[in-house]
Write a structure and sequence with these properties.
2 helices, globular, 7 strands, 3-stranded mixed sheet, 142 residues, Collagenase (Catalytic Domain), alpha+beta, single chain
Length: 142
């Protein structure tokens, strides 16, 4: 972690074998994306889609409302648990709008532990709730 600058975006592959979650991003517009090591089973695994989905969250994109105009779960990568593989026109519009409004690249990408180690930023905002990556079952290996 010491050679990672706080200005960097960070993908963290962490052990999460006892939970079903594929990935998480520290917050909308955040810089730290976590992927579940137990779900990576090849170069073109389902978690490849999850990685792109988490990048979408880092661009400030939320899971789409099924009632929204143009909602197409078979196309949109931001559908939670879906099989879409593309950013839609709406996704591109809102990520650009978020960038112009200064809503991206939030926070530093690590926190210090009491024993002096730096770990990837452990706080996650999800559906208005604040929790930690550890509550989602992610465990860092040292």
């Amino acid at each position: 972690m010491d050679d990672v600058a706080d200005s960097d975006h960070l993908f963290v592959v962490a052990d999460n074998s006892s939970y079903g979650i594929y990935g998480a991003t520290n917050e909308l517009g955040g810089k730290v994306m976590h992927l579940n090591e137990s779900k990576i089973n090849g170069y073109f695994s389902y978690n490849t889609r999850s990685a792109v989905h988490e990048v979408g969250h880092s661009m400030g994109l939320e899971h789409p409302d099924p009632k929204s105009i143009g909602y197409t779960p078979s196309v949109d990568v931001m559908v939670q648990g879906g099989d879409g593989t593309k950013f839609t026109g709406g996704d591109k519009f809102y990520s650009y709008k978020n960038w112009r409004a200064g809503k991206l690249n939030r926070r530093v990408n690590s926190a210090s532990t009491p024993d002096g180690r730096r770990i990837p930023y452990p706080v996650v905002k999800n559906a208005g709730q604040i929790g930690t990556i550890f509550q989602y079952g992610f465990r860092y290996k040292y």
